[in-house]
Amino acid sequence: MTLYLFPAIGIAFLGVLSYVVLFVGRRGRGFPDGPPTLPVIGNLHQLPKKKVFLQFTKWAKQYGGMYSLKLGHGTAVVLTDRRIIKQLMDKRASISSNRPRSYVSQDLVTENDHLLWMNNTPTWRVGRKLIHQDLTESLCEKEHAKIQHAETTQLLYDILETPDLWINHLKRFSNSIIMSIVYGIRSPASNSPYISRLNELVEIWARINEFGATPPVDLYPFLKWVPEKLLGNWVTRAKKVHDELDVLYYRLLAMVRKRREAIGSKGCIMDRLLDQQEKSGMHDHLVALLGGVTIKGGSDTSAATLSSAVQALITWPEVQKKAQAELDRVVGDDRLPTIADYDQLPYIAMLVKETMRWRPIAPLGVPHALSEDEVVDGKFLPKGTICFVNVWGLHHDENIFPDSQTFNPDRYEGRTQFAAEYANSADFNARDHYGYGNGRRLCPGIHLADRNLYHALAKILWAFDLSMAEDPATGKPIVPDTSIETGYREGLTNAAYDFPCKFTVRSEARRQTILREMADAKANVFSKFESTDFS
Fold it and tell me: Where is the binding site for heme, in residues?
């Protein structure tokens, strides 16, 4: 009897094998066009390990504003068309707000408690709402502007004291603002163990998220059972990030709880989360990571964007001179620029937008996934389709941004409102840039982040002349590498490699203004916050 089973088993095996060869990795009928596929692997063999967004942009020129890729048995679409993005990501946000499966980020690093990587679930919606309610435009204008002004004042003071450490000062500045708002705790020094460890962990996680840095277990789950030492110890690396981030975030949570026991609530985001924890049903790990995702998102992103701005300002000094002329006309010597000057400083607003366009920190954003089948322009997109918004391609579309590699804030003349105004516009052509995401995944900190950049760039250009540093051996200027291919890191945050810059205070009067306003910030703002000076 057993002998008769062998032919049946053989036929079944051949059937499965035939199905895999004939269908897995191949583009389905009615799907958007795209590059040719191979059986089983689809287009995986064509994806570069570095700067994949550059290849996506090349394909967009060949296959159009919506094309498909086969990633093993899965399907992805790459979107470089403003109209389609508005239709699918914004108007159909109810079905396009999930995240693709990521075993590394969702299971190993965050236990599915990280707002960035959660699906569009009730827990995600509650968490996002709780974060957003403290980052509204009105609160940014009425409450957070005082913190931003004070922290930017310290940024100027720190650059005065140790200009060679300007990149570290940018990281401290952006981290301290969001820390103050989330935890009621400042980051007063760029060399604190906390800042150093957070930056290190963010960098390690970014490297883990690089394309090809871990095996494609979401496409080929059997790879989970291959000994990890044969695949770069990827599980151990991911779990180490998980453990150390948890230590960091739980320690901050414990500091808030201890303070609440001693003096009560200070009204920061974490206080509000703890006030509503029982009602919302959030466990401690979720609460800790809600705080963590907010400080992570508010720290490295602003610092990376400002680093790109500095790079552009010393490469195109005429832009710097034009911005300084506007600041000199509006502000003068005896005070720093404030948020109240925004409407009178349109070129600074344009400078912020051009920085976001020129070197977007997330050239592919964070991918979305469809929770239902959908048809777009007559093309079928099955449930589970991964949706990449090709931010790099959109920002360097020569039809919209001619000579796109040139840094030119004048592109945005007449469009100087904050980014949220354009992101929420019904007119997809009005969108200034895609640096803050789309639809229900639009960055909840968009109002704060945009104002961080304004405060920093307005004050830095008011205070300093920026120029290329000189090579001490030759006396020649050290030209920064502005190439996206060779001058920028890979990872979730597309940041420039560190480069030197010379900061020269523009006058003695402005130096004295910085010192005076720093003393005021210490007395009237910083004194209200605890410090993260812990090891």
Answer: 443
